[in-house]
Design a protein that fits this description.
alpha+beta; four-stranded antiparallel sheet; 16 helices; globular
């Protein structure tokens, strides 16, 4: 605990919390108010931490929709509790990092989702053309506190730290002014939850390694690669039993399967079914991007086009940076053309009247006759967005 509250560690934790910003917790305190609060209260908080008296506040419940349906429950701690969790994380991470598996990629320094995808592709290319795609049912909501704390205790002996971690796990969850007691789960939203999830699931990694299996795990998303369907079904049954008995976790049978890799997705990616395997973007990932672009364009009716383009650019750049591993160009080219057509559709709607459309197209270089005929063609916005006159008026550049 003395390492946690040490000045340099706390300063680093403060800078990371301020960088990440984040929403206020149940007390309503924002990140910008944290410095003044600490100047007035840090001495007392530090004494409470060293004496083992500190009690975290309840977390604020936030439900966000999942892309595949349903909701993901986040627990947003207060900014002070986020600071303490971050300080704990910085001390615990170097202790547990050497104990984690080389096939685990989630929430670890120097590791990324793209590295996990690249490793998974290598397993498939080596001849393991069946995948056990395991989905842990509501993992972050179902973590057994006793099982998790037993794994933490293997490396951490400070009773005050252990008591503080359990206090964070058991902090109540507040929604609409009503607090509910938590007896299980480590809700996403705090800096400590990702590390705790890796600590718990390391036992799964070791079991897979003991069996000599090729796998990749990113947080609770785990794919195991085998050479036949029969082997996959046998391993699925064995690992499901291991998770239930040892870690008190359950596998979502509806979302888990033994299948061909090109029939499943992993971290937004998939692969082609040809003999020469290629990494491609999974269709649901493309569909989600189309939905996001559509929403931004729909909100752009009353905006200057440049504002909409700037909003799109931040999303498109981030999306393309993440999916830069893809080896299939066609979906990217099709998306590129589709986004430009959406923008032309937006412009056509903004022009509204035939007279406006005619004058705008003339100002963009179309001759008078073509501009007039195009403006009164009676077709809808989407058809016009893909027509030659709009491509000529608003070319890709």
């Amino acid at each position: 605990m003395s390492q946690v509250v040490e000045r340099t560690n706390m300063q680093l934790a403060y800078s990371r919390v301020m960088k990440n910003r984040g929403a206020p917790g149940v007390d309503g305190m924002r990140c910008g108010e944290l410095k003044a609060w600490l100047q007035a209260n840090w001495v007392r908080v530090k004494q409470d931490l060293l004496a083992g008296r500190y009690r975290p506040q309840s977390v604020r419940r936030v439900d966000i929709p999942k892309p595949q349906g349903g909701v993901r429950t986040l627990g947003v701690p207060t900014v002070v509790d986020r600071l303490i969790q971050q300080a704990l994380h910085q001390v615990m991470q170097p202790i547990f990092e050497p104990t984690l598996s080389g096939s685990s990629y989630g929430f670890r320094p120097g590791r990324s989702a793209r590295q996990a995808v690249a490793q998974a592709t290598e397993h498939i290319r080596s001849g393991k053309r069946w995948v056990i795609d395991m989905d842990l049912e509501k993992f972050f909501d179902r973590v057994n506190h006793d099982v998790l704390m037993a794994r933490v205790t293997r490396q951490v002996q400070d009773r005050k730290v252990l008591h503080l971690i359990r206090s964070f796990l058991q902090a109540g969850m507040m929604a609409d002014g009503i607090e509910t007691v938590r007896e299980q789960g480590t809700p996403q939203g705090g800096p400590l939850s990702p590390l705790l999830s890796n600590i718990l699931l390391t036992d799964l990694d070791r079991e897979l390694e003991r069996r000599g299996l090729s796998f990749c795990r990113y947080a609770d998303d785990c794919n195991i690669y085998v050479g036949s369907q029969r082997a996959g079904q046998r391993i699925m049954a064995g690992i499901t039993a291991f998770l239930t008995e040892r870690l008190k976790l359950s596998v979502n049978a509806a979302k888990s399967a033994v299948a061909r890799p090109w029939e499943r997705k992993f971290l937004g990616y998939s692969v082609t079914s040809q003999r020469t395997l290629k990494i491609r973007i999974a269709k649901p990932s493309i569909d989600r991007l189309r939905h996001s672009v559509g929403e931004i364009c729909a909100q752009g009716r009353g905006r200057v086009l440049l504002d909409t383009i700037e909003r799109l650019n931040s999303i498109l750049r981030g999306w393309m940076n993440y999916f830069s591993l893809t080896q299939s160009r066609r979906p990217i080219e099709e998306l590129d053309a589709w986004v430009r057509r959406r923008l032309r559709c937006l412009v056509w709607r903004q022009w509204k009247r035939p007279h406006t459309r005619e004058s705008k197209m003339r100002s963009l270089g179309l001759d008078a006759q073509r501009a007039w005929k195009s403006s009164v063609n009676g077709r809808g916005p989407w058809w016009n967005a893909g027509a030659k006159h709009m491509v000529a008026a608003l070319p890709p550049k």
